[in-house]
Amino acid sequence: MRASVGDQLVQHGRVVGQHDQISEVVEVMGKGGNPPYRVRFPDGHEAVMSPGPDCQIRHRKEHEQR
User: Fold this and answer.
1) Could you read off the pLDDT of 33-48 as tens digits, one per residue?
2) Contact 26, 45 (CB under 8 A)
3) Total Cβ atoms within 10 A of residue 3
4) Residue 5: φ, ψ to 5°
5) pTM, whole model, 2 decimals?
6) CB neighbours of 57 closer than 8 A, spacing ≥ 6?
7) How far is C-alpha 49 from the geometric centre of its chain's CA atoms?
8) Which of 4, 19, 30, 43 lies at a CB distance of 3.0 to 4.6 Å from 34, suitable for a disulfide?
9) Is the dihedral of CA 32, 36, 15, 44 positive or negative?
10) Helices and strands, counts by H and E, the chain
């Protein structure tokens, strides 16, 4: 999994009825775009995440087209 600043990190809901959590990558802390990432959620909260298999990266160009 590789990301750049400005990409979205989507963490899919694990339970029926739980919504996906979408955050923006504000810092790539690993080498070559690899995790961990510092992300910012829509409410302004920031966290350091090492995404698991329930996550996907939406690259900036992909989500700008939506």
Assistant:
1) 999 999 999 999 999 9
2) no
3) 21
4) -60, 135
5) 0.84
6) 1, 2, 3, 7, 8, 9, 10, 25, 51
7) 8
8) 30
9) negative
10) 1, 5
